Each structure stands twice: as structure tokens, then as C-alpha cells.
């Protein structure tokens, strides 16, 4: 025993000589690529911009370090962005990858399978990525389609953004997230598997969505503009149903986000404990008070309101029931954006893309600026705020050591002019460059 101890001590002593200490040191991460950034948004929270920086990226797709000057490492690929402004990959907290609003969209549930939806979602996901959105939250898609795409992207089989997915929305029977506008026997076939009536049924629907793979629970607390029914945009899920949904989701460690236009549904959902409000077209001071309780966010989706307003005037795409609602809500959503700014509501960036064309997401920045926000505030919404909202702190929303290498670059300075974000010139997601013009 004594000789074995001495032998071990000798081995440790030799190791100490080799490593320069009394213990073996972990090998430094291998640097696979280095971005030379002419200007870098070093801290989205303060807007601090630094020049001539090197972002060192490891083989695991994470950022190793940021160093001053243009450094090199043996074997590392140099990515030259010295003439550009570099910032974190953008986050869109509300998209629908499996669809896009068009004249025939009403027939998609009858004509298309989940496989069709998955292939469309893959194409649209790549479009979102190349537009600079390296993370998206998909809030409403066929379960099989979106969960399969999320898995394929995570495994590196498909090029696309990081996806936080809800799958089907929890909706009242016949409500905004359910099928409408068809004959009864067709409705029986198209009825959403996540539709429910009564607290117990809605609690069960939540648990089944989580079982199917939902990262977050999306609910339709009110009617919606694009429901093909003249049912308005007021509260649809009852108070008891809302409470049961939130209780079931939180018990299984899932946040709940509520599609909500009418103020009655907004405030009922917030009182029930939802974590965020999507759209929020008619928020009032009571909504603001409730939103300030806990870690809650408002996702305004001004782009969706602006786009359906354009379509309502253009004609040929929306049904009569949709057109009437679109004209009214489009105007009111623009007013809501200004109200939110005046009342300092905490915002996470989201667009409802799929209502508007995929790839147009950055138009939301311009609409937010028109509502009175500064360019930097809108970038914060799409980086640090959205990361916090989607529980991605430490992973996305910043360019910092240990974070995923989700990085974009533009010409010009987006902290002064957000229109530059409409033309993203370089995109890297999880350490892999997908675009460099």
C-alpha cells in the first residue's frame, strides 16, 4: 500500500511539472473560426459599440472569447467582417413557419398533410434564418410537422433557426385556433386536437401538448382577425379554463403565452397567470399593471396588424369576415404600439410572420421606431429581451463567451438606422456561417 501511494505521488509530481501546477488543467477549447468585426455591439443592454474585435468560436459552436484587435489562431478560419457592424443573431418570438397567408390559405387544412406542412416549414425556416433571425418561437403549427423540423435542425440535418415550438394552440372548441368555415362533416375531420371546452378538458389538452413535445404553451384567449368567422376579438376561453391551463402548464414547467386582442381577454389571461401576451391590441392601464407583475412580456406583432391592413385594402386574399376585423384591428394595433411605449411596457420582439411573408420580419423594427422607440430599444427587444422571454439566457441574445455563436452583420449602423436590418449581409448560427455576401 505504501509503495502504491509513493508511486501515485510520483506520477502526480511528474504531471505537475508538465502542467505547471499540482493538478492537470483542462485543455483550452479548440478555436474553429474567428470573426474579425469592424464594429461590434458588445453590450445590447447599454448599446456599447467597440471597434476592431475578434470573436473566437469553438468547434462546439459556442463563443470562446472576444479579443481586441484582429487576432489569428493556427488552423482557424478567418471570417472577414471588418467593414461591417456585427451584432447578436436576432430572435423573433412569434412566427408560423408551416404557413404563409395567401389567397388559398383557407383550403390548406383540407389539401395539405403534416408532411407538406413540415416541408414548407423547412423552407420558411431557412428564409427566416437568412434574414438574420437565428432563433424563432413557432406559436401554432401541426405537432408532427414543427416538432420534426425542430429535431432535424437540432441534429444538423436541416438548415434553419433554433426553434422554440408550441405545436398546436390550446383553443376553445370553435374558437380562433379551431377550424371554421366548412360544412359540419368537414369540420369534424379538421377539428384541432388541442381544442377544448371546460376546465378539465383544457387541463388535459395542455398535458397532451407537453407530452407531444411543446416547449411552451400557446393559447387563444380571444378571437382573432384571421378566424373565418364573424365572432369578434373578445374573450373566448373562460376564466376557469384559463386558470386550469396555466396551472397545468406551470406544474409541468412550461410558460404560457396568450394570443389576445380584446382587453377583456387580455386582462383575464393575465389574472389567470399567463407569462406573456401576443398582440395585445387593446391593452389598457389595468393590462399594464398586470404585465408588470412577475417576469412578463408583451409581444406586439405590429407587422401582422400592418400587413393585414394592407391586404384588407388590396382585396383578393381575406374573406369578408377577416376583412372587416383586419381594417379595425390594423388601426388599433398601431395605436397600441404608441400606448405601450408611453407606459413603458416590457416588450419582446415578435412579428407573427406567416401572416406577413417570411423574410420580411425586420419590418417590425421600423414599425416600432414609428411608434416612438429608439433603434437601440428595438434591438434590445430582439436580443436580450426576447432571450429572457424565451428562457434562453446564457444561450442567445448576446455575443459573449459561452453563448451560442449566433451572429449577424450588416452594412451601416442599426443602432442609428434600423432599416439596415432589412438587408442582413452575414449570418452565422451555432458556429456555422450560412450567408456572407
Give the terminus-to-terminus CA distance: 66 Å
Mean pLDDT: 90
The tally of domains stands at 2
As residue ranges, the low-confidence spans are: 1-24
The largest sheet is: 7 strands, mixed
State the helical fraction.
25-40%
Instruction: Give the structural class.
Output: alpha/beta
Order of helices and strands: HEEEEEHHEHEEHEHEHEHEHEHHHHEEE
* Count of β-strands: 16
CATH architecture type of the largest domain = Alpha-Beta Barrel
Classify the beta-strand content into a percent band: 15-25%
Given this structure, which CATH class of the largest domain is correct?
Alpha Beta
- Output the CATH topology of the largest domain: TIM Barrel
CATH superfamily of the largest domain: Metal-dependent hydrolases
Description:
With 437 residues, this protein is of the alpha/beta class. It folds into two domains: 31-89 and 399-436, Roll (Urease, subunit C, domain 1); 90-389, Metal-dependent hydrolases (TIM Barrel, Alpha-Beta Barrel). The protein has 13 helices and 16 strands. It has helices at residues 2-19, 108-111, 114-130, 143-154, 184-190, 199-212, 239-251, 263-272, 285-291, 302-314, 320-342, 363-370, 375-389; strands spanning 31-43, 48-58, 63-68, 77-88, 90-95, 133-138, 162-165, 171-172, 195-196, 217-220, 256-260, 276-279, 297-299, 407-410, 426-429, 432-436. The strands form four sheets. Strands 3-2-1-4-14-15-16 form a seven-stranded mixed β-sheet, with no helix packed on it. Strands 10-11-12-13 form a four-stranded parallel β-sheet. A three-stranded parallel β-sheet has the order 5-6-7. The longest helix has 23 residues, at 320-342. Residues 1-24 have low confidence and may be disordered.
